[in-house]
Amino acid sequence: MERSSKKILLIVTAMGSFLAPFMGSAIVVALPVLGAEFSMSAVSLTWVAMSYLLSAAVFLLPAGRLSDIFGRKHMFAGGIALFGASSLLSAFSNSVSLLLVSRFIQGISGAMIFSSPMAMLMTAFKPDERGKAIGINVASVYIGLSAGPFVGGIFTGQFGWRSIFILQSALAFITLVPAVFMLEKETPAASGEKFDWKGSLVYCAVLAALMFGVTHLTLSYGAALAVAGFLGLFVFWQIEERVEFPVFNARLFMQNRVFAFSNLAALINYSATAAVGFILSLYLQYIKGFSPQVSGLLLVVQPVIQAVFSPFAGRLSDKKEPQLIASFGMALTAAGLFILIFLDNSTPLWLIVFCLALMGFGFALFSSPNTNAVMSSVDRKFYGVASGILGTMRLTGQMMSMAVATLVFSIVIGGLRITPESHHLFLKSSRIVITVLAAMCVSGIFASLARGKVR
Fold first, then answer.
1. Taking 90 as the threshold, does the pLDDT of residue 332 lie above it?
2. pLDDT tens per residue across span 239-275
3. Residue 3: predicted pLDDT
4. Which domains are present in the chain?
5. Is the pLDDT at 437 greater than 90, yes or no?
6. What's the pLDDT at 410?
7. 72-91 and 117-124 helices, crossing angle to 10°
8. How many CB atoms lie within 10 A of CB 205?
9. What is the DSSP string of 198-263?
10. Looking at residue 441, what is its pLDDT?
11. CB under 8 Å to 323, separation ≥6 — which residues?
């Protein structure tokens, strides 16, 4: 691919990769306003975030496989178009049910978007350029995370929460134009291979049951769904081992140590961090009494640090072993989480900002090298599947993180709204959640080290 075409590809994929994290982080700041308008409990608020994560996690792996068969450009552009349309639907939702449905559709579009960029970059760039290209793409994700709280806080404060979704729709359709008309046509890497419909349907059902069950463990049907989900994973694995062209290539895990442990490290890392922004957004507004604008400005610290250092970490992983860089990054993230365990009414803002900065730097050192390790460990024809699996680990991890928060909130707070009378329960819940997340992050360090060397 020519140099100019590579630049266009890098810019367009970065624009697409910006959208979903921008949406996710922007809406977090608006949750208290949403809760007041629709009279939502603390547990109900978690589902505004989780409905998106659930559908994105469920559909990402099938979307990755479809992109390998029918073309990554088509999947990427289709995802952006659906994202724009579903954002408009969210903006005009007049009930909690419609909002959750529109967020679920947004998750499908997010799966379509995220299934393709890494595979497209791996195909276009040479091995000694990939770390840099991946680092830039990861940085665009973090720029979205950075801009989300700040822009979302301003728009929520000035124009209401619906304006966030209108803005997202506009950005999506702006991105759609170059995605359709400027990206080069491609020959699908797995053209002519059959799509595993049976495996995909079983996978979607199993993951949905597992995630929904875990978040409702306090209820009898929740426990039953969780057990059914775990048993279903075994059934799914057995099905995929016997399919000629599986949607989930079990051999990549069984025969590729780097791929298996790098994905496990990603799952643990996202499981240990995703709920932190949700908790701190509620903490800053309910406990500290800050406006959405100020809360968004404080939360922007972590993703800004991530965005600044991710390209550097990506370039470093082209020269040094990702195993060491990523593991050190996860250790820094664990240190930041450990400090937040002691969160209370009197916690100074400078300490919260310091923890966010420390976690941001740690996440930057982990994410780009870990992604480089995953994608470099497989053949070209598996780039879409590998990207889909890695994305599934990220989204499943985020879902598990929110599931921990939801479960703890449901046990400690129950169906209560967060009011001054229940602030002590919210703080208790937050400390329990962060303690669990910190323990998970420590275990992730060992998973990252266990991957071995890439080179």
1. yes
2. 888 888 887 777 778 778 888 898 999 999 989 988 8
3. 66
4. 3-178+247-449 (1.20.1250.20)
5. yes
6. 81
7. 150
8. 15
9. HHHHHHHHHHHHHHHHHTTTTSHHHHHHHHHHHHHHHHHHHHHHT-SS-SS-HHHHHS-HHHHHHH
10. 93
11. 373, 448, 449, 451, 452, 453, 454
